[in-house]
Every structure is written in C-alpha cells, then in structure tokens.
Amino acid sequence: MSSIDLMSLVRKKIKQLNAYHVESLSDEIKLHANENPYPPSPELLKRIFLRLNELELNRYPDPECRNLKQAIAKKTGTLPEQIIIGNGSDELIQYLMQVLCNEGDHIAFPDPTFAMYRITANCLGLNPVHFSLNDNWDFEAQYALEVLTRHKARLVFLSYPNNPTGNCFSEKSIQQLIEKFDGIVVVDEAYQDFSGKSFLKQMKNHNNLVIFRSLSKIGLAGLRIGYGIFPSILAEQINKVRLPYNSNTLSQYVATELLNDFSHVQNQIHSILEERDRVIDELSKLSSIITYPSNSNFILFKVPNGGDNLFNKLKKNGILLRNLNSHPKLKDCLRVTIGTKQENNYFVEQLRKISP
Questions:
Q1: Which of 178, 233, 259, 320 could form a disulfide with 71 if both were Cys (CB 3.0 to 4.6 A apart)?
Q2: Which contiguous run of DSSP H or E holds residue 333?
Q3: Rounded to two decimals, what is the model's pTM?
C-alpha cells in the first residue's frame, strides 16, 4: 500500500494560495454573486426544451463555436476570427497569461479589483503587482504606468466597471494606458451591459487592446459563457492553448439564441438599473452607511466598525451579501447585488431594522 507525502509534491506558490471562495446557502435571498435575478424568457425556455430533442449530446460540440461567434460578431460589430469563447471569462484570463507570459513575468491590475487576476497569475508562477486605487476608487495613469514600467509588466487588467467597487475608471486614464503601455491592456467589460460604456471601438486604432465580456451577469450564469475579443493575430495564438471543446453544446445553443433575440434581456437590464438607483437612494438615507456610486448591477457600501456584524445579521435573516472585509482597503465593506423588487424591498427593510 503506497503512502507518500502528497503535500511535498505541491508547488510552493499553490500551497500559499487561498481558494476563491463564494458562500452559498440553500434558502436565502442570494444577493452576493452579481447574477441576473430574473430567469430567461418563457419563449427562450420553450425553444431550449424543443431543441433538446435534436441536440446530439452523444457528439462533441462545435469546437469553433461558429454560430455563437457569428451572433457575438453581429452584436459587437467585430469579426468571428477575433472572438474566443471561454468557460466564463476566468478561462480567458488564464489563456492570455499562458500565451504572453513566461514563469516569473509580471502582470498588473488596480487594487482592489477582481480576485482571479491575482489567483490565476500565482497559479501560473507569475508575479502579480498592483497600483492602488484612490479614495474615489480610481487611478492616475502616470502612477499606473510607473508601476507597469518598473516591473516590466506584460499585461494589465482593468475591470470596467470595476468589481467590487462598481464604478468605471476614468476614461482618460484608461486611454493613456492603451496609448503608452508597451504591453497588452485587457479591459474586462463583464458588466458593460449595465454601464453602457466600452472601449471596443478603440480596437480599430490600437492593437494592444483586448476586450472581455460575459453572459453570466445578464442571465446565463449557470451555463458559464464568457468571450474575449482579440486582435486576430493574438486570437490565433490563444487558440493554440485553448482546451478542445471548451464550450459545451447546450451553452453554445442557448447563448446564440439569447443574443439573437436580446429584447427580453434588455428589458431585464433596464429593470435592474431602475432598481439599482432606487436601492442606492434608500441606502443613502441611512446615516450609518456610506454608499458608493455604481455603474453596475451591484452596490458597494461601508458600515464603519460594523461590516461583519451586519453581514452576519442579514445572513441570519435569510439575506446573503458579499463580505469584503478581508481586504485592507475594503474594511467593513459589503457588496449587494440588485435582486428583484421584492428581494430588494426585504433587504432594505431588514437593513433599516438592524443597521447600527
């Protein structure tokens, strides 16, 4: 019987990592994961059920995701050969690092931001570096460029709007990075459907720009569909490391159908934005809470000296938020995803009762 020290085989950098953790309970109001609270349209669900009889689930999916790429190209005004489909945007983050970076190279991002940039870099033996955001959750281009230059960074990731702060960074600062950084600028537009802001058109003038987007935030989180828009020459290289059949048949079909008939989703987005503004207004009435502006489908707020306590009380009352207290710049901060009107009403009602 074999008995070896398995941990001695694990890389040192992996031992030092903490897994990306998302709390999940069965019966709570889930306002923690930045999902669309509304289900797909009845028409789309009906088409899915009818199509299930025809899908050849015993066969591998289309490895090139041709129909889905055509739908994305039509919606974004790009070319299918520029598009890579990922099992969520996380997969695309990894591919880009694999293609552009050798072990020990540096990648950069603002701080605080989406945790997977750092986690993925560490997993691949890269060195993540950051430039801190100011009190308005923004950055100065010159400061960022100094960090990128000093560390000879190969990549910089900009979440736009930024997760978890919810705001869009200064367009001028991002533009300066695109124009002056001698590396790849990834503008991660996972929440673009809510902000209405994009750097996509800039790709015609700058070949160091990559755009990421996601369908997880607008109704298909369970199918894990992200996509990247790359310069064509870079997309060719990404395809060399992309896992075969990385997007399944059902995900491809449903995503294509949703994009080709987007009106129902657009109505849901409009409802979410109306609710976001209403919830911000309600939160701003509570003197014990600091509420930050949002360009997304979630709101960051701070409960001075009481973030953990409020999080636990809300959880006890069946409301799950995202607790960000572990980050030094986000001490006592919570993030709430915009839910349905009923869910939001209950959240605000409980907040009024138990906030310090």
A1: 259
A2: strand 333-337
A3: 0.94
